[in-house]
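Retro notes, item 3 of 5
We never archived the inputs for the fe (iii) ion complex last cycle. Fixing that now. Sequence and ligand:
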Amino acid sequence: MTTDTTRVPVELRTEALESILVERNLVDPKVMDTYIKMYEQDIGPMNGAKVVAKAWSDPEYKARLLEDGTASIAELGFKGPQGEHIVVKENTPDTHNVIVCTLCSCYPWPVLGLPPSWYKDPAYRSRMVREPRTLLSEMGLDVAGDVDIQVWDSSSEVRYLVLPQRPSGTEGMTEEELAGLVTRDAMVGVAEVAAPGEG
Ligand code: FE
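Structure as it came back at the time:
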């Protein structure tokens, strides 16, 4: 009898695979954790940072990005699983956007890499919907009272990416320099991009 493995959630399949590899001494869990951290914090979000920097530098690209996130992100070569339908939400002086997956941990892998553990935390998933202003403040981001907060619930259909506001003092910067300022947390919407020399 065969089992239709596509019906088993990918996280369970991955865990099963990991335990077999560790059990047979084929991988070292510490090395694996190092790689996971790299994809969470550096390699994954670097792609998103390039997208943001290009949008800040090129108004036509920005317009395309807000119109069709998936296609515009693919223009830069970033595509693949969990990125089939990416919608980009722009932060403005009036509106702050933040992303969550209330059901599980849906996240735009091609631009942000793997989700951090707090993103998968049940407290983050429920409180970001119920009391976003309070939770954001606890996470270090105070959103002014007159700024509207929009919470976007990711799903297996749609993954969101936040286009943060470009900080002041960055007028002469190149795309590469700008990309260096953009953090993963700013693209999830739990932080702002700090001006150079701050943050
Ligand atoms: Fe999910």
